[in-house]
Amino acid sequence: MAAELLAELSRFVHSRADDADRELLPNEELRGFLRRHTKSDQRFFKKAELIGLYREFVETERVQPDPRLFRALRVKPRRTLSGVATVTVLTKPYPCPGKCTFCPTDARMPKSYLPDEPGCMRAERHQFDPFDQVDARIRTLHRNGHPVDKIELLILGGTWSSYANDYQETFIRRCLDAMNGTESKTVAEAQRRNEDAPHRNVGLVIETRPDHVRPREVRRLRDLGVTKVQMGAQSLDDEVLRLNQRGHDVAATRRAMDLLRAAGFKLVLHWMPNLLGSDPQKDRADFRGLWSDPSLRPDEIKIYPCSLLENAELYDFWKRGEYRPYEDDELIALVADCKTQVPEYCRINRVYRDIPSTHVVAGTRINNLRQCVQDELRASGRECRCLRCREVVKHEVVAEELVLRQLPYETGCGRELFLSFETSDDRVAGYLRLWLPGDAVPDLQIPELEGAALVREVHVYGQARSLGSEAAGAAQHAGLGRRLLEEAERIAGSAGFRRVAIIASVGTRGYYRKRGYRLDGTYMVKDGV
Ligand code: SF4
Ligand SMILES: [Zn+2]
After folding, report:
1. Is the pLDDT of residue 431 over 70?
2. For residue 347, what pLDDT is reported?
3. Which residue from 24, 48, 203, 443 has the least number of CB within 10 angstroms?
């Protein structure tokens, strides 16, 4: 019965998704099918159940492997579109050195998190234990049909840099232990083991405050294997920062960005409209500064409209009539205007923070802001050109149809080149971020970076097949990552650099070794480019 259902489901999926442009079967279509094909007791099949059956039947050779069917069953397929699964973990509750007016406090959570946010509930269930959080998440992702051989680890919670060094080291070692399936005594040992572990770490993200980023801290983050840093810029107006008690100025954000870029980190900034002391017009001007100021220009951005929460100090300002949350239409219009300003090298990860609406005292509670903003843009004939809006959602692209583009831009102390492979329908199939240091680079005392051009990120979505390999299962990896890397080496060489250094996660070292790189310090380097 189950085998017949899978066979019928396979026929259905292939009939609906035969067109190469429709690789992702819309959820409603699959749900419709499952409603028509219930179990003998009339209950519905769950996707995870069918994934389990599929795996079991393929293993026992009762059905043929069918990648398209398997993809259609995957829960929230966009999550691992590029083959990388993100595992989010929370650090233990701990006070933050910040006193931000808008930031909620809950003794059960690290500062700024609320106990009923989904990721927080998961962390609390595991008593914030790093090993258990990672282990459980990998299992769930696997059960839901996602690939889990490449893991991006996202560590959330307050200000990472304010936790004790011992705690940081234990936390990361235990996360790696969970991916490795073995225990290590030190972070370095766990990192070595991860190079060929079943779940390789291909990205490690922490969040911190700009005023905590110093050269020593930058070196420490590298030792811990961090590859991406999220920071709250929140505003580019010193007066707004002061009113909201951020405890740092815009110059600190610029300095931190320059330091982190010089060490090759991928850079995510958080920006908050509707802060105390701002208004929609000021916010529009403020947002422009993120792109006009060469020291900022982040790779990714999270727009977090300020939410008014009862357990934040901002609440008292609101009660005294000194703060006004924006109305829905004001916020939609503002975020739509912001989106159109974002350059093609940047990805907008979020346009709202997923706070359960019961906590929001006043102001907007729309949790589909992204959709409302997209509708607004469409209605006014505008579009967002950010990476997220342009990344391919297909699983295969035709290599010969891709065009390699170069987008150069200046940064605080060097020149950045955003190289991208684009499809004929204006989608990004893969990209690479190359940074060419200028003359006034901050001294980080990282000897392996001396005289090196830096590859800060290589990202390929899905797979590329070559023309002539149309037959099912014949998709071949056309090596977009390799081609991007070769182009970066060529550009770096002709710009006078003799060395290329890549801020590679521990789990990607093997990939770069095969391409002639060797480990030097915490970077993969190649000389004589
Ligand atoms: S720095 Fe971040 S976590 Fe700390 S109080 Fe400010 S917003 Fe909250
Ligand atoms: Zn966008």
Report:
1. yes
2. 97
3. 443
**Three-state secondary structure call for residue 518:** strand
Alpha carbon 52 to its chain centroid, in Å, reads: 28
pLDDT of residue 20 exceeding 50, the answer is no
Cβ 397 vs Cβ 423: under 8 Å: yes
Tell me how far apart the alpha carbons of residues 376 and 328 are, in angstroms, rounded to a whole number: 12
Residue 473: pLDDT band with limits 50, 70, 90: very low
Identify which of 94, 109, 111 to mutate to test ligand 1's pocket (most ligand atoms within 8 A of the CB): 111
402-427 pLDDT, tens digit each: 999 999 999 999 999 999 999 988 99
- Of 182, 183, 174, 180, the C-alpha closest to 155 is 174
Pocket test residue of 90, 100, 248 for ligand 1, highest count of atoms within 8 A of CB: 100
Question: Domains (ranges, CATH) in the chain?
Answer: 2-73 (no CATH), 80-208 (no CATH), 226-390 (3.30.750.200), 391-527 (3.40.630)
Which amino acid, one-letter code, is at 283? D
Share of the chain above pLDDT 90, in %: 68
Query: Distance between CA 188 and CA 176 in Å, rounded?
Result: 10
C-alpha dihedral over 130, 459, 423, 375, to 10 degrees? Answer: 40
- Beta bridge partner(s), residue 453: 500
